[in-house]
Design brief:
Strand content: 15-25%
Number of strands: 10
Strand order of the largest sheet: 1-9-8-5-4-2-3
CATH superfamily: Bacterial phosphonate metabolism protein PhnH
Largest sheet: 7 strands, mixed
CATH architecture: 3-Layer(aba) Sandwich
Helix content: 25-40%
Shape: globular
Distance between the termini: 54 Å
Order of helices and strands: HEHEHHEEEEEHEEE
Length: 199
């Protein structure tokens, strides 16, 4: 019965995953730039097309994923288990990848694995599904990959989101990396990017 809930993944796994990987790499190396990630897939309920594409590209049986419980136990969880072979974990701190709703207060970003002094690269990458990549509170980004400063204004994020991001960045070189996802596109916010208010 569960099989009827599982839609197809990539039709051309090599080409489509390579294309998506390049877009995801560009998003994290050029923070704040909009990168089109999604290919022609139909994502499961609860996941944006860009989110589903990113997880198909990056996740496998060695990379546990955290989803909100309702998503984990529904079509999204079944789809990811089938296509990625990934374990879905109940504890945020045990996830390599995670997907959260930008309007939700739980779990806080601090609940995810920030890496260790020996292995700061082994932190969680969190995909934040938001309403849109424009129309929200203007926020200034500075840091590696940004010439001067860059302003973004994603919408569909809870009121304390940017304070959580700033606290995460203050832990650098520890901290999580973020991808803001909506529709077929993402914006990267690596832990090295500093957050400020737009003028």
């Amino acid at each position: 019965m569960t099989d009827t809930l599982i839609g197809p993944g990539f039709s051309d796994p090599v080409f489509q995953s390579q294309s998506a990987f390049r877009a995801l790499l560009a998003a994290l190396s050029e923070p704040g730039t909009r990168q089109q990630v999604a290919v022609e897939i139909t994502p499961p309920e609860a996941l944006q097309a860009a989110t589903a594409t990113a997880l198909l590209t990056l996740a496998d049986y060695e990379t546990p994923i955290w989803l909100p419980p309702a998503w984990r136990d529904g079509p999204a969880g079944a789809w990811l288990r089938f296509h990625c072979g990934a374990a879905l974990v109940a504890e945020p701190g045990k996830a390599t990848f995670a997907v959260i709703d930008g309007l939700s207060l739980e779990p806080p970003l601090s609940a995810f694995d920030a890496g260790s002094d020996q292995f700061p690269d082994r932190s969680t990458t969190v995909i934040v599904q938001c309403g849109a990549l424009e129309g929200g509170e203007a926020t200034t980004l500075t840091g590696p990959g940004i010439a001067g400063a860059r302003v973004i204004a994603p919408s569909g994020l809870h009121a304390g989101f940017w304070a959580e991001v700033a606290a995460n960045n203050a832990r650098y070189p520890l901290g999580i990396d973020l991808l803001l996802s909506t529709g077929d596109a993402v914006v990267g916010l690596p832990r090295s990017t500093r957050i400020g208010e737009a003028n």
